[in-house]
């Protein structure tokens, strides 16, 4: 199995950012987006991590790694707003995510840097809102299958987006007055100079009955 190295903030940096991140999620993102009365869903999913180098070198067995998130899922608006908090036991990064099925877009807000990243919604991976509500219901009642797996996607910021006003009110409220960038899958970039990559981070979340590890890189 191929191992991928990630350039992410250190544990100390994440710990220092924890209070600011939580305040940003609670008072900025939700204050802007959650403008109507909503039900916030809490869920936790674990995947079998077989790529932990420390565990492998010590001859240990792979272990289950938890992924936690909150979601405001609005079936009437055909949208899912996801909060991925600062993780306690992994090197994933905190983020706010919007899956807008009306606009066909996904937006990632990096809560450490405050940048927005946009890519067409992958409906083959992201469940529609109705199914996400059912998934969170299963998670809340401990009725989820234990053999969860992880899908890894490798994305690159390819250009800055100057105007997000045409991307719908939810993404606009998330990304307005922030730097916003269009994302592309790395395997679709012909002749891409891998050495040009400067900053990379990853977000572990579950838009379906499995965990997705989204790696985002930027020059």
From TrEMBL:
The keyword Glycoprotein applies. One of its GO terms (molecular function) is amyloid-beta binding. It is a single-pass type II membrane protein. It comes from Chrysochloris asiatica (Cape golden mole). Residues 89-183 form the BRICHOS domain. GO terms for cellular component: extracellular exosome; Golgi apparatus; plasma membrane. It is found in: Membrane. This is Integral membrane protein 2. SMART domains: BRICHOS. The lineage of its organism: Eukaryota, Metazoa, Chordata, Craniata, Vertebrata. Keywords: Cell membrane, Disulfide bond, Glycoprotein, Membrane, Signal-anchor, Transmembrane, Transmembrane helix. PANTHER family: INTEGRAL MEMBRANE PROTEIN 2A, INTEGRAL TRANSMEMBRANE PROTEIN 2.
